[in-house]
Amino acid sequence: MSPTGAARLAGVAGWPVSQSLSPALHGHWLAEHGIDGAYVPLPVRPDEFAADIQALARMGFRGVNVTVPHKEAAFALADRLDAAARTVGAVNLLVFDNGFQGCNTDVSGLRAALVEELGRDCVQGRVAAVWGAGGTARAAVVALSQMGASEIRIFNRTPARAEQLAKALEGVPTPLSAAGYGAWTARRDGVALIVHATSAGMNGKASIALPLDGLASDAALCDVVYNPLKTDLLERAAAAGLRTVDGLGMLMHQAVPSFAAFYGITPRVTPALRAVLEKALRV
Ligand code: NDP
């Protein structure tokens, strides 16, 4: 249905935000469930983040998703935090309810995507590797720990940032180690699952060039980059015989709790939703 004057309002705050798939994603669910609601892109400048969020709350928005570069600012603005946001130190969902409730749904989103595409026990009792040390890598380490990885090896272009990440997450119950990319070949033995969580390979940027040989025959690689959907890295992984998971699964699943918070219905991740997003990526 078209939104009426009483529509429930939500959106995604980013800078820039025109590349976001979230309006198409939530728009699909709004139509599917016949909800009187709207979900809009919100270009919010970094220096105006707090003032703009407060204005949206005053105007009756139910909440917002938060994307680059605002996830740390949203963490700082939140009055209350869920457990995942506290552990990761970043917020991608602000629910306006007696102040600002800050949540991190990237952790559960990645976990759900891995379970759906590789199976519940895909990393249980096995070694995982995370490439990258930014906010998404941090969410990936928490997700892999929750999934029962026996050890998580973090690799980053800037080794000091990998070390900072391992230190910041030393409270997770999984042994963590940190290194630069130069250590990959010596430290890849036993790795069953790689999560690539850097911005390399995104929107025409050069892809990450780490070798993918020497891994177990049932090893898998998940690329969180979803634009383009078939990254060079995923193509190399498939050619090397690895099972692959693209970034759309995480994107779709991280949106589920947001939609539920804004509109009161828990939506489903379906092939029809994936088709909508794949089409949006082709435009
Ligand atoms: P950050 O800016 O926080 O971190 C960027 C990371 O990428 C750092 O580790 C940085 O290394 C590394 N990096 C950047 N360029 C290169 C390069 N050329 N070669 C090697 N490493 C590089 O980014 P985010 O964590 O916010 O986002 C990372 C990716 O995750 C993005 O592509 C984003 O689109 C994607 N994402 C996907 C989601 C999904 O649902 N699928 C959800 C959220 C994000 P260094 O420390 O050395 O600078």
Can you give a write-up of this model?
By secondary structure, the protein is an alpha/beta fold. The chain folds into two domains: 8-104 and 253-282, Rossmann fold; 107-246, NAD(P)-binding Rossmann-like Domain (Rossmann fold), CATH 3.40.50. Helix content is 39%, strand content 20%. It is built from eleven helices and twelve strands. It has helices spanning 22-32, 49-58, 71-77, 83-88, 106-118, 135-146, 159-168, 184-187, 232-239, 248-263, 271-282; strands at 8-14, 37-43, 63-66, 80-81, 93-96, 100-103, 127-131, 151-156, 176-180, 191-196, 220-223, 243-245. The strands form two sheets. Strands 2-1-3-5-6-4 form a six-stranded mixed beta sheet, with helices on both faces. Helix 6 (135-146) links the parallel strand 7 and strand 8 (151-156). The two termini are 24 Å apart. The mean pLDDT is 97. Bound molecules: NADPH dihydro-nicotinamide-adenine-dinucleotide phosphate. Residues 68, 106, 109, 132-137, 156-158, 161, 197-200, 202, 206, 208, 224-226, 247, 250-251, 254 line the site of NADPH dihydro-nicotinamide-adenine-dinucleotide phosphate.
